[in-house]
Amino acid sequence: MNNKKVWLVTGASSGFGLAAVKTLLKHGYRVAATSRNVEDLAKEVNDHSGNFLPLEMQVTDQESVNKGVAKAVEHFGRIDVTINNAGYILVGAIEELSDEEILANFNVNVFGVMKVTRAVMKVYRKQQSGYFLNMGSISGTVTAPGQAIYSATKAAVILMTEAIDEEGREFGVRATAVCPGGFKTNFLASRSARFPQHPMEEYQSVRQYEKQYKELNQNQGGDPVKAAEAFIKLAESSNPPQRIYLGRDGFGGAEYKLQKVGKEMSEWQKLSLSTSL
Q1: What is the pTM of this model?
Q2: Which of 19, 144, 174, 269 has its CA 20 to 30 A from that of 51?
Q3: Catalytic positions, written as ranges
Q4: How many domains does the chain have?
């Protein structure tokens, strides 16, 4: 009988999700993995050990999420670790993005995490144990032209995760926001990245960043399999961090931001403190 932890991985058809599923199965973990196309996911993973359960799930639909979580529990008896991985990048200046484009990004990146967390937390509370690994991004800490909306979604995930970690401790539940830099996945490919439907020529800085994103596709410096191994180490830790930055650029970007914020706080300390009674 396999007594190893049960993992639930959303957005498992590619990138971090797919790398995590394959790595976890290689280590003998039991894995329920979600995708919008369950047949393609099953073919891609190609595991017949009995430890793999592919699930169709729309993270923007609470009923779909509830059904997927229930099937995972019915099949494996429990869920121990959840990777909230489903998400995509939206690139564009605020002025050139429509409400529909912006809302769609928040629906997947933020409200999708909320919906999965809401459903899984019920399982965790009953078990009095569980762990969330929520995929943030270095972009939730350091931003750039064209990243306003994507950065906002990932900043929301990071702070939401830290609150979930605080809320869940009385039930034996922990949570970590994972903030990667650039990893060699198809995240910046046309399938995963969205660009403005009506780009404005005036925003040259945004166009330049768009060009860099497209050139960076498949040339990132991070290894998604090594990230998956890091996920396992986090899940096996007795006291995981509330957030962690992965990759040299992710770690370096966070260091840069901390130094910049510290410098500005020091420079503007007098004005900051002048507003107190």
Answers
A1: 0.92
A2: 174
A3: 150
A4: 1
